[in-house]
């Protein structure tokens, strides 16, 4: 294997490398979706993608639904994307187009773009509570990432990642668990406007476009996140 195949791409390079293929870069993974009309069609799409992935077959994850197949690519050895994943996305897209189907991260007529959900817990002593959440959720560490600042992940890829945010002092009157929703960089403003129109309020935009902190009418918080502003 070419040694460069194991070098993670920078966030800007990763996003630019696959966007024209109908894939999007979210949380160190490439994502796309394919519209189908039945579960049988979904199985055909997954099989087509697996054949096209070739040597990167273990990088491919497929979630089959009667109306859509969600595909993602990530090198499981480093929990990130490399040039090998770009090449796999290119092959998969070409194979799908040959069958008359398109990879489309915009979700077509459905109500949202591709996205990834994380849950964040504010904590004073992260090393003490992290093992509890790892055990109760039956989650695992990502490869080589087992420190307090590193997320816990569902080994089956079904549940959202869980990460911990350091607190300096207790905050008993404030919600200490919040959601992070990662969206394509050009989806963030639309999602932000929709949330504000629905009664939300902007808490903090000091780190935008990496993330905007929003809250509902009772103060429960969520961050709208993109890959931008993080390198």
TrEMBL record:
The residue ranges of the Glyoxalase-like domain are 119-225
UniProt xrefs under InterPro entries: Glyas_Bleomycin-R_OHBP_Dase (IPR029068), Glyoxalase_6 (IPR041581)
Q: Per its UniProt record, what SUPFAM superfamilies does this chain match? A: Glyoxalase/Bleomycin resistance protein/Dihydroxybiphenyl dioxygenase
Tell me where on the tree of life, at the top rank, the source sits.
Bacteria
Matches recorded under Gene3D superfamilies: 2,3-Dihydroxybiphenyl 1,2-Dioxygenase, domain 1 (3.10.180.10)
The protein here is known as: 4a-hydroxytetrahydrobiopterin dehydratase
Q: What is the lineage of its organism?
A: Bacteria, Bacillati, Actinomycetota, Actinomycetes, Jiangellales
């Amino acid at each position: 294997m070419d040694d460069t195949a194991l070098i993670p791409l920078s966030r800007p390079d990763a996003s630019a490398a696959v966007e024209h293929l109908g894939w999007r870069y979210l949380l160190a993974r490439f994502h796309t979706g394919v519209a189908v009309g039945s579960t049988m069609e979904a199985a055909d799409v997954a099989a087509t993608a697996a054949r096209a992935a070739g040597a990167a077959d273990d990088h491919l994850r497929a979630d089959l639904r009667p109306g859509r197949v969600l595909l993602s690519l990530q090198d499981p050895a480093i929990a990130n994307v490399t040039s090998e994943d770009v090449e796999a996305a290119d092959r998969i897209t070409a194979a799908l187009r040959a069958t008359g189907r398109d990879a489309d991260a915009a979700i077509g007529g459905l109500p949202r773009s591709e996205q990834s959900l994380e849950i964040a817990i504010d904590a004073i002593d992260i090393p003490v509570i992290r093992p509890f959440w790892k055990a109760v959720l039956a989650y695992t560490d990502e490869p080589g990432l087992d420190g307090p600042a590193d997320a816990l992940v569902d080994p089956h890829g079904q549940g959202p990642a869980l990460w911990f945010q350091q607190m300096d002092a207790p905050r008993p009157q404030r919600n200490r668990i919040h959601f992070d929703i990662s969206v394509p960089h050009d989806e963030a403003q639309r999602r932000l406007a929709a949330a504000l129109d629905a009664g939300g309020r902007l808490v903090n935009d000091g780190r935008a476009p990496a993330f905007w902190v929003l809250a509902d009418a009772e103060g429960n918080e969520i961050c709208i996140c993109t890959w931008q502003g993080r390198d």
